[in-house]
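target protein:
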Amino acid sequence: MMTEVLREEAVPLLSRPAPAPAAADLVPTGIEATARITARRDAAGATVLPVLEGEGPLAVRRLRAVGAEARAALVGAMSAPLGGDRLAVHAEAEAGARLRLTSTAATIALPGQHGQPAFYDVRLTVGRGAAVHWLPEQLISAAGSDLHVTTDAEVAEGGVLVLREEQVLGRTGEPPGRLTSRLRVRCAGRLLLDQELCCGPGAPAGWDGPAVLAGLRALGQLLVVRPEFADAPVQPRMLADHASVTPLAGPAALVTAVAPDALSVRKLLDEAMTELLA
């Protein structure tokens, strides 16, 4: 949600009202909000959540734990991100902890009142022997929006990371907004993956061509970091006409998929996740 801060000079009490500010005096600002989650293993081996905080549109709710795994969900408390917003999610699983973080609904990037871009930064930290599952619902890039998404993950030795990203270009019957998405992952102090994709109006030529999206509207990727992959690397292969699994130079595998709709992307990624976590 956008707000406007009006800059005006102070006037004496009971004086005549000051004239309305000119357009140049309007300073557009967006919402700045951060959600913070920390998972910690207790003496009994279960995972507790000593930090579970949300701000503005990023509300965080504790879910029922499953075994030693703590679970939480992001709940959208208002429409966001809009142009000008700066949102962030910081989630950490300390050594030996287990955390699964989801969202309750899709995130819709919408245009703001002043044509500014919005920013959504996700930071995931996986401690030694810990596990983090980051499994949000789809991100929908609505017409006229401009969103920059950055996901940074740091995985310590022996850690497990399951990261799923799904993006839909435009709602039904509308063109997409501009979406810039960057994913950076480090494992045991070494860079594992650093990639960026830009789609929509103003993106580099060819983003919707046969080498990238091939005219399809939904895309997704699944990154799985597991220590077991160091000794038994995943074999590269096609999963469908527009989906594949690729081993990375480290104990990890990357699944990428594009499809006509979000449901098809989710089906492909779910099948791959079941296989990679077996």
About this structure: The CA atoms of residues 196 and 240 lie 23 Å apart. The radius of gyration is 21 Å. The helical segments are 262-276. The chain has one domain: 30-276.
